[in-house]
């Protein structure tokens, strides 16, 4: 069998919160001025109450509202595939499985949390959401999600991407998102750059500042973030909860679970339900592998300390592995992995030794992507291709040792909007960052 | 329930051949010189024997080879969705269902036949396939399919598309397809245009001639066509066979089955298994609706007569509705519907009154596409959006009459590669062809 589905109606009905399973509590975010823990009240300025409660929750299981399940069922459950062609191509005794999150209409795992966030904002009376987007993956997901709940969505899109990736902009606009090139003249944060240069290329840092400023200064508007925070990772656990049941159906439990890490949301979404077993002591030998680009090696080369979540220093201080909030990674094509830090939950589990990490260069990642496209047929996103590369390396090690390991990775998205990078790779013109 | 799957392993194991169910036999293709029926032997110059046998078969059910099922299972069965949000938005008592063929890796229904054709060529000892592609949908599907069987694939791509749609080219190249801008210097057919103007924009007619010429003059090479022919339509019946069982699971039999018609393959794929019931006399009231663009109104305004299948007159004469083989439709964005004729099987059934047809203008089709994207969340291909427009019109009529009709249409592909057309529509700049 190549594909494992779950009958419709069998989407998980609860999210798994891994925080209460940690052997020691997560360090709280700190106010940069007082160095005291930030109170939930402060977060209510930019997030609605239900999401703030989820952010600090110590409940292990949290009900998924019916209204959210209803929208998720447009594409969930997503298939789990056995990568038989890839196994044959590699000549490995390993069994390779992947969870296919690329089948969502926005093409990635991102709508799993976008739909939940839009819903909780809706029931909290919020009329508008702001967010930022770099390559456009998150902005697409939030535009897609908000339209179902009649919420307006404004996306500050880094101007260089706005100009270079018009199709991502059109995708957001087709889903009624309002896309603003950043820096813009509409916020104080943007204005200082815009007025000096209306064609300023922008940065994710500036775009975040614009989105947060607007949410903080308008009563009808909140802010939405696509990764890093506890509640975002929580919403992504549907991936791993489905995958666990599909792996059971296939008759296996993974020896290795793999995901690419940018902010940590697709990695956590797949791995946390399996990591929960390890934290409970049931699966002591489970290997959980976080894969990052060598161009932005947060876990493998960063320091574990308090740092700002954004570039300009508007957010609370967060305890995480960081390359420094002013670190600017090279412009690799896996735009979703270009984050100086990582989700605090992922960092804590890495620090405690429950997670391993590895970093790859861009060219070897694209080589893996093309191998996957030519065996399994799906064009993977550059971000997801980091997980593919690690899965292939594990499978090749199995070939050397003869181990029949069961490998599971997250295919977090497709690469239909990244074909210019494939073109460069195929022509031998890709920078080996 | 929004989505109806079939457990893996339940892909249909036989294709349905509608030819033997016709109340009178299909007129055979004729040799343009002798006006006598073309012998199967002549077709063997460009097609392998198993496909020629399927082309003229009078067997009602034809086994799908295991090797083909194995590759189809990478994405099949495809989901059947109930378009609940669209129903609510329209306020209709009608029940709207759609079969989602956009989930295949090349993004449309085309690989259903591409995989079968690649397989039969493989077992017939063919080493290379040639084909033509306009917008790139078919070329992508054949590149995708041939890589699984180790067959080389050369795609003659109309030069203007080659230059304007680089992402489609990259998609084919990632799947190992060799993409040649047409007219090329590699064939006599291409040379006469290429030598006068190396930047000649090309046409589908020239590209077909190049692909056929190469297949006819090289022993290791055959030609592959993505629509029109009986065996192509046969391979697409997996769509409707799955949909019938999924509709049963949902508890309904459709009153109206709708598909867009270019050459006829996605339309036939969905509708033939239902039309078979009508031909057998079991469902006399079933309405089957073919939807075409007003810019290329083959069924609604064409003549039913013998005509060439290609523009330059290399093919046999085919009995079909035609606008004339030299008809050049305006450059609408639904490139897959710009064909002067239609599949003979579809034309025969239309002539006999088993099928209705309707034609729409480009702007109203994009309006329907955006309505669909904003209710059901999926960005449809411009081709598929013709079916959506017809489904919406049926549902609105039900609102007026109070009828609770069950409507089923084919979402034959996604629109990720057509976002420039959406951009034009959203800006009010789309030509109303």
From TrEMBL, chains A, B:
Keyword Iron set for record: no
Essential cofactor(s): pyridoxal 5'-phosphate
Domain of life per record: Bacteria
Keyword annotations from UniProtKB, A to Z: Amino-acid biosynthesis, Aromatic amino acid biosynthesis, Lyase, Pyridoxal phosphate, Tryptophan biosynthesis
The keyword Iron belongs to this UniProt entry's keyword annotation: no
Protein name: Tryptophan synthase beta chain
Catalysed reactions listed for this entry: (1S,2R)-1-C-(indol-3-yl)glycerol 3-phosphate + L-serine = D-glyceraldehyde 3-phosphate + L-tryptophan + H2O
GO MF entry, a single one: L-serine hydro-lyase (adding indole, L-tryptophan-forming) activity
Subunit annotation: Tetramer of two alpha and two beta chains.
Function: The beta subunit is responsible for the synthesis of L-tryptophan from indole and L-serine.
Pfam families, sorted: PALP
GO cellular component terms attached to this protein's record: cytoplasm
NCBIfam families: PRK12391.1 (NF009057), trpB_rel (TIGR01415)
Protein's pathway: Amino-acid biosynthesis; L-tryptophan biosynthesis; L-tryptophan from chorismate: step 5/5
Family: Belongs to the TrpB family.
Boundaries of every Tryptophan synthase beta chain-like PALP domain copy: 74-413
InterPro entries named among the record's database cross-references: Trp_synth_b-like (IPR006316), Trp_synth_b_CS (IPR006653), Trp_synth_beta (IPR006654), Trp_synth_beta/beta-like (IPR023026), TrpB-like_PALP (IPR001926), TrpB-like_PALP_sf (IPR036052)
CDD domains: Trp-synth_B
Modified residues (N6-(pyridoxal phosphate)lysine): 110
EC number(s) from the headed UniProt entry: 4.2.1.20
């Amino acid at each position: 069998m190549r594909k494992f589905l779950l009958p419709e109606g069998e989407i998980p009905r609860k999210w798994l919160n891994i925080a209460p399973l940690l052997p020691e509590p997560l360090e709280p975010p700190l106010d940069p001025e007082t160095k005291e823990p930030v109170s939930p009240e402060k977060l209510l300025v930019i997030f609605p109450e239900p999401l703030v409660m989820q952010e600090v929750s110590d409940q292990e299981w949290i009900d998924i509202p019916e209204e959210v399940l209803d929208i998720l069922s447009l594409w969930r459950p997503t298939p789990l595939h056995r990568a038989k062609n890839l196994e044959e191509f590699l000549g490995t005794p390993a069994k390779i499985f992947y969870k296919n999150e690329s089948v969502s209409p926005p093409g990635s795992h991102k709508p799993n949390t976008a739909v939940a966030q839009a819903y909780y904002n809706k029931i909290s009376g919020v009329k508008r959401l702001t967010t930022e987007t770099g390559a456009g993956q998150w902005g697409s997901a939030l535009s897609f999600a908000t339209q179902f709940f009649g919420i307006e969505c404004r996306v500050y899109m880094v101007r260089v991407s706005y100009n270079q990736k018009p199709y991502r902009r059109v995708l957001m606009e087709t889903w009624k998102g309002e896309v603003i090139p950043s820096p813009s003249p509409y916020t104080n944060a943007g204005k200082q750059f815009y007025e000096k240069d209306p064609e300023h290329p922008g940065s994710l840092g500036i775009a975040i500042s614009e989105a947060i400023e607007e949410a903080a200064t308008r009563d009808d508007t909140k802010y939405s973030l696509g990764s890093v925070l506890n509640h975002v990772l929580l919403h992504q656990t549907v991936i791993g909860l489905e995958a666990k049941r599909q792996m059971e159906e296939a008759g296996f439990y993974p020896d290795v679970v793999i995901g690419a890490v940018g902010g940590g949301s697709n990695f956590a979404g797949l791995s946390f339900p399996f990591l929960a077993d390890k934290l409970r002591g049931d699966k002591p030998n489970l290997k959980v592998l976080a894969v990052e680009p060598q161009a932005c090696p947060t876990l493998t080369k960063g320091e574990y300390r308090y740092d700002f979540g954004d570039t300009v220093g508007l957010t609370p201080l967060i305890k995480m592995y960081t390359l420094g909030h002013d670190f600017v990674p090279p412009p690799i094509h896996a735009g979703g992995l270009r984050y100086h830090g990582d989700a605090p939950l992922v960092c804590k589990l890495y620090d405690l030794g429950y997670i391993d990490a590895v970093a790859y260069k861009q060219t070897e990642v694209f080589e893996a992507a093309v191998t996957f496209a030519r065996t399994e047929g799906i064009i993977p996103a550059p971000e997801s291709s980091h997980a593919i590369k690690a899965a292939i390396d594990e499978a090749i090690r199995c070939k050397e040792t003869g181990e029949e390991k069961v490998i599971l990775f997250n295919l977090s998205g497709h690469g239909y909007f990244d074909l210019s990078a494939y073109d460069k790779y195929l022509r031998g013109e890709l920078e080996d960052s």
